[in-house]
């Protein structure tokens, strides 16, 4: 079985991330996860705006299953962990979780399916070989 590489991206909770109760608004966890996936792609050498131009693909969330476990609060430091659970012909399944830095409390966990789409018409597209190869090499390196 291939060891799965895990990408870690630190974040801090800002006032704008919280709701009237002073905790992170539930939808913002999805934003944190989106940013972590974007930064992970960037760390592998792929800028999403470049991918839209050449080879003409983009990635869009198709499905999310999320389990909220503990709240985060203003000014806390968090870390978003992302790994690929599966690579399909035109999709990527991510396993993501957010932990509080310091105590390691798991705040939420999610399974996220991302579809590869042609930028010109938003129809499904095979993941380009260069991206697939880099993803698979990243998994094999760890």
Structure, explained:
- The protein has a five-stranded antiparallel sheet.
- The chain is 26% helix and 37% strand.
- It has a single domain (6-141), classed as Roll (Thiol Ester Dehydrase, Chain A).
- It has 142 residues and is α+β, with helices and mostly antiparallel strands.
- The model has no long low-confidence stretch (mean pLDDT 93).
Key structural traits:
5-stranded antiparallel sheet; single chain; Thiol Ester Dehydrase, Chain A; alpha+beta; 142 residues
Short description:
By secondary structure, this protein is an alpha+beta fold. The chain has helices spanning 26-43, 48-53, 129-141, and strands at 6-12, 57-68, 77-87, 91-100, 106-118.
Q: What's the multimeric state?
A: single chain
- Counting DSSP E segments of at least 2 residues, the number of strands comes to 5
Query: What best-fitting shape do the alpha-carbon axes yield?
Result: elongated
CATH topology: Thiol Ester Dehydrase, Chain A
Number of domains: 1
Please count the helical segments: 3
Uncertain stretches: none
- CATH architecture classification name: Roll
Mean pLDDT: 93
* Strand arrangement across the biggest beta sheet: 1-3-4-5-2
CATH superfamily: Hotdog Thioesterase
How far apart lie the N and C ends?
A: 12 Å
Write the layout of secondary structure elements.
Layout: E1 6-12, H1 26-43, H2 48-53, E2 57-68, E3 77-87, E4 91-100, E5 106-118, H3 129-141
Antiparallel strand pairs: 1-3, 2-5, 3-4, 4-5
